[in-house]
Design brief:
This protein is 47% helix and 15% strand. The protein has 485 residues and is of the alpha/beta class. Helix 7 crosses helix 8, helix 8 packs across helix 9 and helix 14 crosses helix 16. The longest helix has 27 residues. The protein is globular, with a radius of gyration of 26 Å. The relative contact order is 0.10.
Length: 485
């Protein structure tokens, strides 16, 4: 689906250009299409009009009349262009890696091509593209979905919209404000929603590894602090943000309980939860216990409009201190009957909102080709099975999530999305991208990072602007954001 925005460099710029009678006025109109997380097309047009200036002695009244006429023509052209754009039908495409990466790539590529066709417009269209990036809106998304943190019914609307239009929202694990900001920067560039995901270890890192973590106090405090940071700045990026927490196994339930308490306190004051959703990963327990605990928590979460993500089957590999590298391969694949039992139990909870992380061969981390065998057909078979059980016309009654997404093939991702996957977790790739940005910064400036004073420019030259921690962290942010886009 398209979200189209038209910007015109209007009267202020035009008036300034007209002060030079030998310079034609330049009006650059840009229509940039690329909404959500899945459009890979954009339309850019640059129109130039040169009014007849006449002699320098022409009086001011004639000049003002010409300006008004040109402005009216430009406004009419802009309205026509907006009408043409709004008449376009939604298009969708599933993408690999960060799920909506092709959207920004398409926009950038088309902008570059437009620049080659009309070199005179380069400076003006650059300004417009920057403005568009900052002011992206989501005219084709559900009306309930606004820039900022999305919760409750707006979250349900957004996930339903993703399923209907077959795109997956990237769920990116973070470990601090730098990676949080990189996520939202990438979303702003791509013009789509983002899920900022806190792990238990990530929460503790935000609080500080030296902080007292008795009863998961630091894990809780850091996660809450990170969520408040997102809430404070999310609207500044102009994108919908889902606040989520990752795997919580049975032994980590004190962390989960602390987060629920924080949500309930926030809800009492603000009428919505602090977070959008939380994940329980009880896949190592029996199916019966997994379902029973999830249902118990969902009943509590439903009262404050929180969505629950639950896991069936085990995600292989290692992440955030959980090592499933040696698990029996049969446990990496969920059966339709298991998902049906979950669906029945959780659907019975009033106001209950949930998604299912059903294993289909997923593995955390990046491995050489051939070492991971994904079977997205399991998700297709499960949707068909539950549809028959419900007797519904809905081909995708379950909202699935995709764990262990780093390193997956484009084909597997696309096929999984067609089965109702609405979110894909990303961690390993973005961790590497952040580190690589920092590493490249160090390599580029190595001669300026050996001492506080003294570099190739002189023995007494200071190096403070190079070893300022913000410089290396910003390089990591940019690299991570670029990897997502």
């Amino acid at each position: 689906s398209y979200s189209c925005l038209a910007f015109t460099l209007g009267p202020p710029l035009q008036a300034s250009l007209l002060r030079d009678h030998n310079m034609p006025s330049k009006v650059s109109t840009l229509a940039l299409a690329g909404a959500g997380a899945y459009c890979a097309t954009s339309a850019i047009s640059a129109a130039f009009s040169a009014p007849s200036v006449g002699q320098v002695t022409r009086n001011l009244r004639q000049q003002q009349q010409q300006q008004r006429q040109q402005q009216q023509q430009q406004q009419q052209q802009q309205r026509q262009q907006q009408q043409q754009t709004s008449a376009q039908e939604p298009q969708s495409t599933a993408t690999a890696g960060a799920c909506w990466a092709l959207a920004a790539a398409g926009a950038v590529g088309c902008a570059a091509r437009a620049g080659k066709r009309a070199p005179r417009a380069a400076a003006a269209s650059h300004v417009v593209r920057a403005a568009t990036m900052e002011k992206t809106t989501f005219t084709k998304m559900p009306a309930s979905v606004k820039p900022g943190v999305v919760t409750g019914q707006a979250l349900v609307d957004l996930l339903s919209y993703a399923k209907k239009n077959e795109f997956a929202i990237p769920g990116v694990n973070i470990v601090g404000t730098s990676s949080i900001n990189a996520c939202m920067e990438a979303a702003a560039k791509a013009g789509g929603p983002i899920m900022v995901t806190f792990s238990r270890g990530g929460g503790q890192f935000i609080a500080g590894k030296a902080a007292d973590n008795t009863d998961d106090a630091a894990c809780i405090a850091g996660s809450v602090a990170g969520a408040l940071h997102v809430r404070a700045v999310a609207k500044l990026y102009g994108v919908p943000v889902i606040l989520h927490t990752d795997h919580c196994q049975k032994s980590w339930l004190p962390w989960f309980d602390g987060l629920l308490k924080a949500n309930e306190e926030y809800f009492e004051k603000n009428g919505e939860p602090l977070f959008s959703s939380h994940m329980l990963d009880l896949s190592e327990e029996s199916l019966e216990e997994n379902i029973a605990i999830c249902k118990k928590y969902l009943e509590r979460m439903a009262k404050v409009d929180l969505l629950l993500e639950m896991e069936l089957g085990i995600t292989g590999g290692e992440e955030d201190g959980v090592d499933n590298s040696d698990v029996d391969s049969s446990r990496l694949y969920t059966q339709p009957e298991e998902v049906w039992e979950v669906y029945k139990a959780l659907s019975a909870v009033p106001n209950g909102k949930f998604t299912v992380a059903a294993a289909f061969g997923n593995v955390h981390g990046v491995y050489a080709p051939g070492n991971v065998e994904l079977k997205p057909v399991i998700l297709h078979n499960t949707q068909k099975y539950i549809k028959e059980k419900l007797g519904t016309e809905d081909d995708k009654p379950v909202s699935f999530v995709f764990h262990g997404g780093s390193g997956s093939s484009k084909e597997d991702i696309q096929y999984a999305i067609k089965a109702g996957v609405i979110k894909m977790n990303i961690d390993t790739d973005t961790q590497w991208a952040f580190w690589d940005g920092v590493n490249q910064y160090q390599k580029k400036n190595v001669d300026y990072l050996q001492a506080q004073i003294g570099n190739p420019e002189g023995a007494e030259k200071p190096n403070k602007k190079y070893y300022d921690p913000r410089m290396a962290l910003r390089a990591g942010e940019v690299s991570m954001a670029d990897r997502l886009v």
